[in-house]
Design goal:
This protein has five helices and five strands. By secondary structure, it is an alpha/beta fold. Strand 3, helix 4 and strand 4 form a beta-alpha-beta unit. The N and C termini lie far apart (185 Å).
């Protein structure tokens, strides 16, 4: 008998872990339904994967959630800025309208006041009374001051009864009167004299004393 035809007396022992692994793989493979990954030659090296049963749905990571939150905040800020910008543009027009209202109200109020206030009529001018005698006296150091004033009063309508020197020089012209204040004031207004005084001791109903102020003005 040739050595090649003889069977070994002691066959090589199999590794129990390898056998167990093959058994476990066969058992686990038989528990899955057959699909495209199983259509491979039995003798070849099998490479593939099976779908997991009841696999959980993918979850959004914290980074993606943060980006979404930041985007929402940016949109909210942009919308608020747009609304505030529109209101600020409309504000000047409203402010100008509000500022115009007080001036219009003031103008209308002034017009109403002017229309309600009666127009003051000018006081009637006192006409010269020729029956009232007037004495004119020169108290200035200007020759002819009394005569010039007397001629002016006579032309206006008063009766000048006397002209003379006052005896004492004065600066401010004065019109004295005994009892007719109205005619005395009329004489003073006509000559431009500011001072009018009552004096019962004067020799005429109205006495005009020409001072330096009136004489220098060309009385």
């Amino acid at each position: 008998m040739t050595p090649s035809s003889q069977s070994p007396a002691n066959p090589p022992a199999r590794d129990p872990e390898v056998s167990a692994g093959r058994t476990s793989s066969s058992a686990s493979a038989s528990s899955w339904p057959r699909d495209a990954f199983d259509d491979v030659p039995e003798e070849g090296a099998r490479v593939g994967a099976h779908r997991a049963l009841d696999a959980p749905a993918p979850r959004v990571t914290r980074q993606i959630a943060g980006l979404l939150l930041a985007g929402a905040v940016a949109l909210a800020v942009g919308a608020a800025a747009y609304l505030l910008g529109g209101n600020s543009e409309a504000a000047p027009g409203a402010a100008s309208g509000a500022s115009a209202s007080p001036s219009q109200s003031q103008s209308q109020s002034q017009e109403a006041t002017e229309s309600a206030t009666p127009t003051q009529e000018a006081e009637p001018t006192v006409e010269p009374d020729a029956s009232v005698q007037v004495g004119v006296y020169n108290a200035a150091e200007v020759d002819g001051a009394a005569g010039t004033t007397a001629q002016d009063l006579s032309s206006a309508g008063w009766t000048v009864s006397a002209t003379d020197d006052w005896g004492v020089g004065v600066e401010q012209s004065v019109v004295y009167y005994a009892d007719d204040e109205e005619q005395a004031q009329a004489v003073a207004d006509h000559l431009g004299i500011e001072q009018v005084a009552s004096d019962e001791a004067v020799g005429y109903p109205i006495v005009v004393v020409i001072g330096s102020d009136l004489a220098e003005d060309g009385a």
